[in-house]
């Protein structure tokens, strides 16, 4: 077990007991963190391991949410309703990801980001226009249905199912990162010319990574729709896209646990700030500024860096660059 | 469509052109900043808004604050002062924050400016509310003028003339003068330029200030047309980004032509299918990218 | 905030020890009212802090107690995100001892919290939410739409203007559910009463430059240019119309279908003058409304918007209903509210319907000319009092609650 896996296992163990200590942490809050944690992992899969910045990730989260939600409202009572709606949501997100990624991948660097931003506006427009998305009312009262005979309407059952789905999603991302495919992605990120000269079609790998990332974001969106029973325009908005950037950045780009930490902090902050009102935007903006100016490795990244430095001091080894996004020309 | 007279059609085109002027000014500023600093200035919308607010503050608030109710900073003075103040504010941010990020990926510059934009928007919202403030155009520009096919407010005519002049002057400055040559050389090879004895860091700061000042001028010009609200820039910015991508990032001429062109197209869309008048810009962007990935006026392949 | 709540809870438990019997009928020994709205975003001017202040006035008028149990207020910013609203509501219901949540300036947050309140057997009162869905297909037995809905607003303005002989209409509509439903309801009234809709422009949200739409509307020659939008869109449309001199003659008037006094305040009377609009409340209507408004003004230095005033009325009547029902159980309170005639400083001749619509008198208002305004916030002339039954929609078949009755 790597230390990441150990920490993750400890987190999951802690999460397992949450419903038994109701006064400690509110289980619904934990579920929200899990959804956004997965969402941030998806984003990090792209940014951290390919160096591509997307401002369209809300489009994937939202598309999957809308599709899953709309299907659950119609076929939620069917015993296979949950897995089918889930799969359809993820597939829809992957499809939208393919369309947006395919177009955006034609340009690199900052252009790529701008194009995803613009294309996600089209998705937003469609979500407003379509009747089945509920326009600005969104979808409410999405039934949770049942899975393998378990009635998900109970918050406790839903909690454990969500936890299982969350673990599956996280471990999938971890597998991808450590697979040969993940290694190629990082090679492309670090030196595209070298990877190309080794015979890898960089564009193809990046597109595939984009679609995968979109699918995982969709997975998070489908889970979120199921857990909270609602999907709204906010889920496809640019605002959500920038929030996921903040989560990833705050936690640590390119670290596996960073996005989870970032998601927990941002979600917690939103809950906390809800009661102080007025200055939410200012506080979020300041966090952005501080993170970018002084904390570019993110919390987890800084921690890993600190530990590595300490280990190096103990036994000198050739220095390794910390996982900061490489400069994209 | 058939019930639209030529007169009405011309009127709509004119209105579209006015919108296009704002797109052009804003996207030129973005293009200039990107060209030299390699930074996507997400603060552009907030700076546009800030200038509009400064104009409003100058007209209605400064006097009472200073205990002299008659003291007013009028429109013409605001047209100079507000952009200058916004530029100074922008340059201070460039010096203290942005500068530290030049050696890193573009992403960080983008995120930093995004954070600054949030703080600015939130701050103005905190102090001035969201419903916004009205700003009257100067007396000499109030009232309509008959341009043959429609009654056009004098102020709108002024906006078109002024912004076209500013756009042209900017283009001339960057593409046809020695200073412009230096600036462009700075994007290509800053070290070489430094060797010629030009202080590149100062040049960068001033360029950023100039780009921001363009947004500021657009903001003051917009104040009598749009309600002055903390969010007035944010919603405009997404469209302006698309304009810049279509024109080709960093191309000043591209930004200007695309900005005006898209204003016209948007105006026409408002006649034919108004629901899509915002999204049409993004659809065009997608199409343009399919045909010319570098943007219509982009230099690199 | 949180520590204050805990402090209150501590004080409360001490109080309870001495007077346990008094609070028996109240769950958790406390009645807690939650105000969930936009404290920082685009709807904060007509809801925001002011709504909480208005609710506090109601609580104070009830002496801070009902059935011997203390009444407390909590407020939070849902940032216009339904999932934040839903989470706050769940937490308030599950752990915060909150019995009723009010306000909700956006339909998506309102509908999301209504759903949760139904599951948790608590009450929602939409004092700012005007969506028709709340009283039609998404209706809930535990919800009351306390201020008004889009139909009543649209029908109110439309009927009054048609009666004045303004028969031809043009709509400038926000391309959103609420814009569509304002437009649909108003056009239905226009056509039913012998008027004619000459055309429609649907604009994206947010709109920005409206001159194009307003010019089309002007060219149509319609007697009424109805704005089926809200907030900054309405403000910009009116402002730009004034620039082109549209709506300045008696031949063509502008009628914004959903406007708050805060919008008029920010437009200024010079631009807004002569417009017709319908509101649920105007502070300068009579002595009772003025008395409430002055209390509010003393705290906020602004006059209350219709939705802020509605929060006051909602909280006041909710507490009265608990008093009358002898319990704070949601179903019983709602049943009692339905039997009451609502009559206070804000709501007149009010009756709560099975589907949650509070049918009451609305005001047809016309914006004063600058010269006629004697003081700040002196903005409207009341042109007519619209009887609730004339302007509210008939109970919809889409709401299952109507079928029973």
How would you describe the overall organization of this protein?
The complex is a heterotrimer of chains A (329), B (301) and C (405). Chain A is mainly alpha-helical. Chain A has a domain at 26-238. Chain A contains 13 helices and 2 strands, in the order αααααββαααααααα. Chain A has helices at 3-17, 27-50, 57-75, 81-104, 109-129, 155-178, 180-190, 192-197, 202-228, 238-251, 258-276, 280-294, 298-314, and strands at 146-147, 150-151. In chain A, a hairpin with a 2-residue loop joins strand 1 (146-147) and strand 2. The relative contact order of chain A is 0.17. With 301 residues, chain B is mainly α. Chain B has a domain at 24-232. Chain B contains 11 helices and 2 strands, in the order H-H-H-H-E-E-H-H-H-H-H-H-H. Chain B has helices at residues 6-37, 44-65, 75-96, 106-128, 154-176, 178-188, 190-195, 200-222, 232-247, 252-272, 279-291, and strands at 144-146, 151-153. In chain B, strand 1 (144-146) and strand 2 form a beta hairpin. Chain B is globular, with a radius of gyration of 20 Å. Chain C has 2 domains: 2-148 and 286-360, Rossmann fold; 151-279 and 362-391, Response regulator (Rossmann fold, 3-Layer(aba) Sandwich). Helix content of chain C is 43%, strand content 19%. In chain C, the strands form 4 sheets. In chain C, strands 2-3-1-4-5-6 form a 6-stranded mixed β-sheet, with helices on both faces. In chain C, strands 8-7-9-10 form a 4-stranded parallel β-sheet, sandwiched between helices. A 3-stranded antiparallel β-sheet of chain C has the order 11-14-15. In chain C, strand 2 and strand 3 form a beta hairpin. In chain C, helix 12 (306-325) packs across helix 13 (330-339). The radius of gyration of chain C is 21 Å and the shape is globular. Chain A: The chain crosses the membrane at residues 6-29, 36-60, 80-103, 110-132, 152-173, 207-232, 244-269, 276-295.
Largest sheet of chain B: 2 strands, antiparallel
Radius of gyration of chain A: 20 Å
Number of helices of chain B: 11
Question: Which descriptor suits the 3D outline of chain A?
Answer: globular
Strand arrangement, major sheet of chain B:
1-2
Average pLDDT reading of chain A: 86
Keywords:
heterotrimer, A: 329 residues, mainly alpha, two-stranded antiparallel sheet, 13 helices, 72% helix, C: 405 residues, alpha/beta, Rossmann fold, 2 domains, 6-stranded mixed sheet, 4-stranded parallel sheet, 15 helices, 15 strands, 19% strand, disordered N terminus, ABC transporter substrate-binding protein (chain C), transport (chain C)
């Amino acid at each position: 077990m790597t230390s990441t896996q150990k920490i993750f296992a400890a987190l999951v163990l802690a999460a397992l007991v949450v419903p038994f200590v109701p006064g400690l942490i509110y289980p619904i809050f934990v579920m929200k963190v899990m959804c956004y944690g997965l969402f941030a992992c998806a984003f990090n899969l792209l940014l951290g391991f390919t160096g591509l910045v997307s401002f369209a990730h809300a489009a994937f989260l939202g598309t999957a949410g809308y599709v899953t939600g709309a299907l659950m409202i119609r076929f939620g009572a069917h015993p296979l309703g949950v897995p089918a709606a889930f799969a359809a949501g993820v597939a829809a997100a992957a499809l939208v990801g393919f369309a947006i990624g395919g177009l955006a991948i034609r340009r690199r660097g900052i252009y790529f980001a701008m194009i995803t931003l613009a294309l996600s506006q089209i998705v937003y427009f469609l979500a407003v226009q379509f009747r089945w998305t509920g326009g600005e009312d969104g979808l409410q009262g999405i039934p949770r249905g049942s899975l393998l005979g378990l009635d998900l309407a109970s918050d406790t059952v839903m909690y454990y199912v969500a936890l299982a789905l969350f673990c599956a999603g996280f471990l999938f991302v971890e597998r991808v990162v450590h697979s040969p495919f993940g290694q190629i992605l990082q090679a492309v990120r670090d030196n595209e010319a070298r990877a190309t000269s080794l015979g890898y079609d960089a564009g193809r790998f990046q597109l595939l990574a984009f679609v995968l990332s979109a699918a995982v974001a969709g997975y998070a969106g489908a889970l979120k729709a199921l857990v909270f029973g609602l999907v709204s325009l906010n889920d496809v908005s640019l605002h959500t896209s920038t929030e996921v950037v903040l989560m990833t950045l705050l936690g640590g780009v390119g670290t596996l646990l960073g996005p989870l930490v970032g998601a927990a902090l941002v979600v917690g902050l939103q809950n906390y700030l809800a009661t102080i009102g007025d200055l939410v935007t200012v506080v979020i903006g300041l966090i952005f500024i501080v993170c970018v100016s002084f904390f570019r490795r993110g919390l987890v990244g800084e921690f890993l860096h600190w530990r590595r430095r300490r280990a190096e001091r103990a036994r000198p080894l050739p220095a390794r660059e910390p996982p900061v996004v490489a400069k994209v020309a | 469509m058939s019930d639209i007279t030529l007169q009405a059609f011309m009127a709509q085109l004119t209105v579209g052109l006015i919108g296009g002027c704002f797109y052009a000014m804003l996207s030129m500023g973005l293009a200039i900043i990107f060209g030299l600093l390699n930074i996507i200035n997400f603060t552009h919308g907030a700076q546009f808004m800030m200038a509009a607010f400064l104009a409003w503050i100058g007209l209605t608030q400064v006097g009472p604050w200073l205990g002299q109710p008659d003291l007013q900073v009028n429109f013409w003075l605001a047209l100079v002062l507000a952009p200058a103040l916004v530029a100074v504010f922008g340059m201070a941010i460039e010096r203290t924050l942005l500068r530290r990020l030049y050696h890193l990926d573009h992403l960080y510059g983008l995120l930093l400016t995004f954070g600054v934009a949030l703080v600015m928007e939130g701050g103005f919202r905190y102090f001035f509310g969201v419903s916004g403030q009205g700003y009257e155009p100067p007396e000499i520009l109030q009232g309509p003028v008959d341009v043959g096919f429609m009654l056009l407010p004098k102020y709108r005519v002024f906006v078109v003339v002024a912004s076209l002049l500013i756009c042209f002057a900017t283009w001339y400055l960057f593409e046809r003068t020695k200073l412009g040559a230096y600036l462009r050389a700075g994007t290509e090879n800053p070290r070489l330029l430094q060797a010629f004895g030009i202080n590149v860091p100062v040049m960068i700061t001033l360029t950023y200030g100039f780009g921001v000042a363009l947004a500021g001028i657009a903001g003051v010009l917009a104040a009598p047309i749009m309600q002055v609200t903390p969010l007035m820039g944010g919603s405009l910015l997404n469209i302006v980004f698309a304009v810049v991508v279509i024109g080709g990032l960093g191309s000043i001429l591209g930004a200007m032509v695309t900005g005006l062109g898209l204003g016209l197209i948007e105006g026409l869309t408002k006649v034919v299918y108004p629901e899509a008048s915002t999204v049409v810009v993004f659809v065009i962007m997608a199409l343009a990218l399919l045909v010319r990935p570098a943007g219509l006026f982009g230099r690199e392949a | 905030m949180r520590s204050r709540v805990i402090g209150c809870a501590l004080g409360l438990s001490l109080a309870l020890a001495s007077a346990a019997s008094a609070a028996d009928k109240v769950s958790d020994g406390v009645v807690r009212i939650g105000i969930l709205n936009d404290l920082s975003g685009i709807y904060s001017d007509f809801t925001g802090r002011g709504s909480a202040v208005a609710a506090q006035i109601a609580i104070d008028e009830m002496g801070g107690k009902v059935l011997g149990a203390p009444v407390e207020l909590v407020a939070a910013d849902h940032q216009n995100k339904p999932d934040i609203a839903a989470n706050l509501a769940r937490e308030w219901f599950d752990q915060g001892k909150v019995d009723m949540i009010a306000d909700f300036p956006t339909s998506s947050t309102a509908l999301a919290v209504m759903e949760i309140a139904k599951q948790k057997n608590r009450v929602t009162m939409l004092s700012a939410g005007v969506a028709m869905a709340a009283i039609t297909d998404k209706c809930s037995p535990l919800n009351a739409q306390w201020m008004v809905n889009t139909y009543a607003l649209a029908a109110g303005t439309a009927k009054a203007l048609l009666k004045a002989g303004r028969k031809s209409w043009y709509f400038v509509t926000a391309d959103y559910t609420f814009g569509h439903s304002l437009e649909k309801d108003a056009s239905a009234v226009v056509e039913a009463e012998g008027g004619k809709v000459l055309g429609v422009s649907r604009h994206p949200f947010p709109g920005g430059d409206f001159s194009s739409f307003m010019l089309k509307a002007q060219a149509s020659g319609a007697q009424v240019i109805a704005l089926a939008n809200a907030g900054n869109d309405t403000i910009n449309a009116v402002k730009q119309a004034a620039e082109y001199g549209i709506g300045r003659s008696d031949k063509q008037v502008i009628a914004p279908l959903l406007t708050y006094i805060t919008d008029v305040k920010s437009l200024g009377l010079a631009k807004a003058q002569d417009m017709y609009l319908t509101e649920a409340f105007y502070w300068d209507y009579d002595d009772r409304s003025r008395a409430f408004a002055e209390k509010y003004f003393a705290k906020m230095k602004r006059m209350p918007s219709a939705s802020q005033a509605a929060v006051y009325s909602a909280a006041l009547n909710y507490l009265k209903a608990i008093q009358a029902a002898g319990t704070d159980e949601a179903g019983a309170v709602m049943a009692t509210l339905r039997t009451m005639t609502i009559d206070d400083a804000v709501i007149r001749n009010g009756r709560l319907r099975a589907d949650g619509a509070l049918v009451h008198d609305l005001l047809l208002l016309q914006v004063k000319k600058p010269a006629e305004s004697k003081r700040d916030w002196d903005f409207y002339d009341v042109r007519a009092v619209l009887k609730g039954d004339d302007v509210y929609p008939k109970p919809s078949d889409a709401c299952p609650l109507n079928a029973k009755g």
